[in-house]
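Cross-check.
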Amino acid sequence: MFAIFRDGGHQYKAEVGQKLEVELRDVKEGDKVVFDEVLLIGGGDEVVVGQPTIEGAKVEATVIGEIKGPKVVIRWFRRRKNSRRKNGHRQRYTLVQIDSITK
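Predicted model, tokenized:
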């Protein structure tokens, strides 16, 4: 069974036991998180599609911790002016493990 849910402007496909990187939240390690904007639940022969969401459906997850994404390097360059700058950024995410999907 899998579910597609919306969180923080992104859509995620989740299965039980899977680890996902979601938008950074102010939660502690080991806390439970509930995603209640479920758009689709599928698996096997049955598929339930929301209009736009499925009422009463939720995806429950446990917070594993905070992680950083890959480094993105930003460069500014102006030709013939000896003007060069380099900057980097690493986005922070919350790592969660999916515990259950309910309809």
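The chain has no helices and eight strands. The longest strand covers residues 58-78. Passed to J.P. for a second look.
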